[in-house]
Design brief:
Layout (H helix, E strand, L loop, with lengths): L4 E5 L3 H12 L4 E5 L2 H10 L4 E5 L1 E2 L2 E2 H11 L5 E5 L4 H10 L3 E4 L4 H20 L1 H4 L12 H13 L6 E4 L6 H10 L8 E5 L8 H6 L16 H4 L4 E5 L6 H13 L1 E2 L8 E2 L3 E6 L3 H6 L5 H7 L2 E4 L10 H16 L5 E2 L1 H9 L5 H15 L4 E2 L1 H4 L6 H8 L22 H20 L4 H8 L3 H11 L3
Parallel strand pairs: 1-2, 1-3, 3-6, 6-7, 8-13, 8-14, 9-10, 10-13, 15-16
Antiparallel strand pairs: 4-5, 11-12
Helix pairs in contact: 2-3, 14-16, 19-20, 19-21, 20-21
Length: 466
């Protein structure tokens, strides 16, 4: 078997020699050139398994090389060599199609990890393994043009290392999209570490993200690995990234730029090889304008944006999703497979689903508990009624902003039920809404409701809510 080949394009002799020696020790065959013209000639004569190019060259730029390789050698990963701290160049290179970037002075260990990842990707493409990987059809349900486009984009994003910002309302499946990008890429064998940025107390964030050393603060009884170290060699998914406080945004930006973290109490930084995927249901660009989210961090994590459409924009997928959810519920419970009556199916397809797929799952689970036998009728769905004003408000939201789920109207007090039942219904509705919005995190739901966790636990028991 012939050695894998690498093309190095850099006008600095020291860099060419460093890369040639380092890559040669990895049993790679290296050709090094110093200009765009020489790179064109080399690429015209043979194909390479991997390319490195400097940003500035005597007769052109690295972008020209990236564009040339993307057009004529699309299966060849290319990494940009940038000056230390030149974030703009790195982001620009990733947007142009670069696989990843390396900062000067070159960290040898980081370089070796990048090379292994890139060569694994190239080998998969040649052998056809990349196309054999699951495309997410079994989990990312839907045949609408919007979802076909999402699946196609996931396949493209999986092939490079650029940070991806996944935009979409609550409940559309942003974490699933992130998992599929990870699973279809060269990091699939590495860890996928999801973290809800809104669920970590502010005072614990630095320790959670970067780890700490024994004795670095009261209660630090041992060394602890942070989320970045846990995701080393894989993917770190920052869900609800808009919830990060400003002081953590600064530290996160540095960790992403330098590809290294400093645990609390440590003297030296620890290199980490992590791909960053992030998501939020909020309009991140609007938060930048309002000064609530750092523009430089937004620029860094939003190299490529993938929008996941809300369910109301793909109503044709509701029937497929419903069938899938009902099969899952039947498998989970071991009971009969639920069947939607035609009127119930029409009601689901007409409903806006402000909570999207997650709300559909909750509606069907509740309906299965309420229906007689295995047939679900409209009344079993218990869909909330939306007023014309609510429809208008939902339609006027800025792109990427999630509308609030309207609570189901509680029936007015009656002679039979009385005021106590009326208040209980109001409480039940508010609690269920808070649980759904917080993904059934009871601590977060209690905070939304403005009550203590203990009080919420009491009310859940009192109202018979699981």
């Amino acid at each position: 078997m012939s050695a894998q080949t690498v093309l190095v394009i850099d006008d600095e002799r020291d860099i060419r020699e460093l890369l040639t020696i380092t890559l040669g020790r990895m049993d790679l065959q290296v050709e090094a050139v110093g200009t765009v013209a020489e790179a064109r000639r080399a690429l015209g004569e043979r194909s390479y398994d991997l390319c490195f190019t400097d940003m500035r060259l005597p007769d052109g730029t690295g972008h020209e090389v990236i564009e040339l390789i993307a057009a004529e050698h699309p299966d060849t990963p290319v990494a940009m060599i940038t000056a230390y701290g030149n974030v703009d160049a790195a982001v620009s290179a990733l947007k142009a199609g670069a696989f990843d970037f390396v900062s000067k002075p070159v960290d040898i260990q980081m370089l070796r990890r990048l090379v292994r990842t890139a060569l694994r990707l190239a080998e998969e493409k040649r052998s056809g393994q990349a196309t054999a990987k699951p495309d997410g059809n079994e989990r990312l349900i839907g045949e609408s043009p919007a979802m076909q486009q999402v699946r196609s984009t996931i396949g493209k994003l999986a092939r490079n290392q650029a940070p991806v910002y996944i935009a979409g309302e609550s409940g559309v499946g942003k974490e699933l999209v992130a998992r599929l990008i990870h699973e279809q890429g060269p990091r699939a064998s590495g860890p996928f570490v999801p973290v809800n940025c809104g669920a970590i107390p502010s005072e614990l964030m630095e320790s959670e993200f970067f780890g700490h050393r024994k004795g670095s603060f009261t209660g630090a009884v041992g060394d602890k690995e942070g989320l970045f170290q846990a995701a080393n060699g894989g993917t770190l998914f920052l869900d609800e990234v808009a919830e990060l406080p400003l002081h953590m945004q600064v530290k996160l930006l540095r960790a992403i730029q330098e590809k290294a973290v400093r645990p609390i109490g440590a003297r030296e930084e620890v290199p980490v090889d992590v791909r960053i995927l992030s998501a939020t249901h909020k309009n991140l660009a609007a938060l930048v304008e309002q000064g609530q989210f750092r523009q430089d961090l937004f620029y860094r994590i939003n190299v490529i944006e993938l929008r996941v459409p809300p369910l109301r924009e793909r109503r044709g997928d509701v029937a497929l999703l419903s069938s899938f959810v009902l099969r899952q519920l039947a498998n989970k419970s071991g009971g009969a497979l639920g069947r939607l009556l035609p009127a119930a199916q029409q009601a689901l397809e007409a409903y806006d689903f402000p909570g999207n797929v997650r709300e559909l799952e909750n509606v069907l689970e509740r309906a299965m508990a309420m229906c007689d036998g295995d047939e679900i009728d409209v009344s079993d769905l218990m869909l909330p009624q939306r007023t014309p004003r609510q429809h208008a408000e939902a339609g006027s939201l800025a792109p990427g902003m999630a509308p609030a789920a309207p609570p189901a109207a509680a029936p007015p007090p009656t002679a039979d039920g009385g005021l106590d039942d009326y208040i209980s219904n109001l409480e039940r509705t508010a609690i269920i809404k808070a649980l759904e919005e917080s993904r059934y995190n009871k601590t977060a739901a209690a905070k939304k409701l403005g009550i203590t966790f203990r009080a919420l636990r009491y009310k859940l028991k009192k109202l018979g809510i699981d």
